[in-house]
Amino acid sequence: MSKPSSTNPRTRIGLIGFGCVGQGLFDILERQPESGFEVKRIAVKNPTKLRPLPANRFEFRADELLHDAELDILVEVIDDAAEAFRLVSLALRQGRRVVTANKAMVARHLPELLQLQREFGGTLLYEAAVCGSIPVIRTLDSYFGQEPLRSVSGIFNGSSNYVLTRMSEGGSDYAEALAEAQAQGFAETDPTLDMAAFDPRSKAVILAAHAYGLLLNPDDVLNLGIENISPADIRYAAERGQKIKVVASLQPLSGGGATVFVTPQLVPADSPLYDVEREFNGVVVEAEFAGQHFWRGRGAGGHPTGSAVLADLVALRNGFRYQYDKLSGATVAEAPELELEVYLRNAPEGLQHALGVTNESGEIIVAAAPEGVLGYISLNKLHKHRDALRAAATFVAQTGKTRQAVAQPTQLATELVAE
Q: How many independent structural domains does the chain possess?
């Protein structure tokens, strides 16, 4: 990239937020002056927090950056989704060019953000919101904008993946592995968003818009996490040559639209996701004509995520905006009752009955012991009883096999899987 000149002035950035991602971006731009970007103003929330730059570099009214006509692009990298939406929506109403890394905000408000861009002419890019340094959003939007996709799946959260790696490698229990992840900076003090799979759910919702043209409400998407996992579950997978990973799955429906869910999954050794370990993310795309594509990279951290913000800055300077080609022609059919084959451990008998666990023949399974049960459960029932599963300390992992719902006979069968 050529250095800026008098005829090619530096692009002036207004940076809102100076946490991990904000500092990562700032450091990248300082190291790469030839990129032609300059952080002119930085807005933060807490005036007393110690930061690695002189105090006079910071100000505390983010709205003032929105009204500074000399700033060419605004970058929003705060962790408050509601405040992020307020700021980004105001900027778009002014026709501004904006980059955000806030996946929860984008997933929750994408329909409104699209409407604001259409109405006022601004542009919003958010590559950094999904899988850190892996360029999956623009790839789906641009490269696969016209090609049907058989599936999109992946490990979208490095914190939970780190915990699973430590449990698998070191024999740690969940609490020990989580504490280590927090000490290493890979998990928050409150780990709920990561460990309960709310974070990868937001990312899956965003990808659904680009991969299948769907604008989904995150609350309608199943997310099951690993809060109730035990070493017994890790052993169960290992004895079968598998690993447990938290996998987001996007699968097209025959009549249009797609099914989207996030759950732990028993991943076989021949899967590209099998060797994605620690804080890394992995994305698998199965395209109709291009075949399988796989990307692996760091899904979080200042520099990896900052690199995604930099890529969006360059794209905005070059006039790029998402096309959403599949959104314009998307149809949503009545979804068939999809059933997932799952490994279910520590489910009370009443909860098993409510879930309607069945075997391959469609016979209802009742397990009288806390050992693992292998059977089929409808996606809708898993979603309906998600909170009950968490409260009962039940662990659920899908095997990757799915089927359309079968009529359930009245007879019972029993199938126990030893730990």
A: 3
pLDDT tens string 203-243: 999 999 999 999 999 999 999 999 999 999 999 999 999 99
Asked if residues 289 and 282 have their Cβ atoms less than 8 Å apart, the reply is no
The full 3-state SS of 181-246, as one line of letters, equals HHHCCCCCCCCHHHHCCHHHHHHHHHHHHHHHCCCCCHHHCEECCCCCCCHHHHHHHHHCCEEEEE
Residue in the block written with tokens 């769907």: 214
Of residues 103, 203, 243, 326, which has the active-site annotation? Answer: 203
- In whole angstroms, give the CA distance from residue 250 to residue 255: 15
For residue 409, give the 3-state DSSP assignment: coil
Going by C-alpha positions, the residue among 158, 213, 159, 209 that lies closest to residue 326 is 213
Whichever domain contains 189, its CATH number is: 3.30.360.10
pLDDT tens for residues 336-363?
A: 689 999 999 999 889 998 999 999 888 8
- What one-letter code names the amino acid at 195? M
The crossing angle, in degrees rounded to 10, of helices 158-170 and 231-239 is 80
Residue 71 placed within a domain:
yes
Supply the range of the domain harboring residue 369: 338-413
Measured from the Cβ of residue 187, the count of other Cβ atoms closer than 10 Å reads 24
Pick the closest to residue 339 from 405, 257, 255, 247 (CA basis). Answer: 405
Instruction: Kindly state whether residue 315 falls inside one of the protein's structural domains.
Output: no
Is-catalytic flag, 203? yes
pTM score above 0.85: yes
Of residues 243, 313, 222, the one with CA closest to residue 13: 313
d(CA 35, CA 4): 8
Is 99:312 a contact under the CB 8 Å cutoff?
yes
Torsion of CA 266, 272, 278, 282, to 10 degrees: -110
Q: 147: which residues sit within 8 A by CB, 6+ positions away? A: 287, 288, 289, 290
Question: 152 in helix, strand or coil?
Answer: strand
3-state secondary structure of 170: helix
